[in-house]
Write a structure and sequence with these properties.
- The structure is a single chain.
- The chain is built from five helices and no strands.
- It is mainly alpha-helical and 165 residues long.
- The longest helix has 33 residues, at 4-36.
- The radius of gyration is 17 Å and the shape is globular.
- The N and C termini lie far apart (54 Å).
- 35% of the residues are buried.
């Protein structure tokens, strides 16, 4: 049976796991897709497919990891991780739906990622009484680093494959 303290800790960890993985992977992906494709509908389609598949995968992986540790709350942790992943992705895809210029949409998605990172870290650090700035900038640096690498890969792939969509 899940006790309150374990449940709250597991759900906080599950939310951070899903949210952070979505931020890192999807910001990198949409940055790369924006540079490689520049077609808003293809970017949205690709991001939605990848988000749902990765969200389900994250949820299943979290469930299996928690089950391995004999956690009775494994199902809830898995669902929470997958839901946090998909919800974060939805917020990152939203600018592409409402902004027609893909470069402005990419900037808005990155701004959304920064807001999510700072909001999440503010909440976690407030709850735990830890240093906000260090945690927030660490998560932000990881997110930016992955996005830059994906952006560069998108440009390199577009150039080397001769793709001009």
């Amino acid at each position: 049976m899940c006790n309150t303290m374990t449940r709250n800790f597991k759900y906080s960890g599950a939310i951070v796991l899903g949210m952070h993985d979505a931020l890192v992977s999807l910001t990198g992906m949409i940055g790369g897709l924006t540079m490689a494709l520049a077609d808003r509908k293809l970017i949205i389609l690709s991001a939605v497919i990848a988000s749902v598949a990765a969200g389900l995968s994250m949820g299943a992986s979290c469930y299996l990891a928690e089950k391995t540790h004999e956690n009775n709350c494994a199902v809830r942790a898995g669902i929470t991780t997958g839901a946090a992943y998909i919800a974060t992705c939805a917020l990152l895809i939203l600018p592409y739906i409402i902004i027609f210029d893909t470069y402005y949409a990419m900037l808005a998605a990155f701004a959304m990622a920064v807001v999510i990172i700072f909001g999440c870290n503010w909440f976690i650090c407030r709850k735990r009484g830890c240093g906000f700035w260090r945690h927030a900038f660490e998560m932000l640096a990881i997110c930016v680093g992955v996005s830059i690498v994906a952006f560069a890969i998108g440009e390199f792939a577009k150039f080397s494959l001769g793709v001009n969509i």
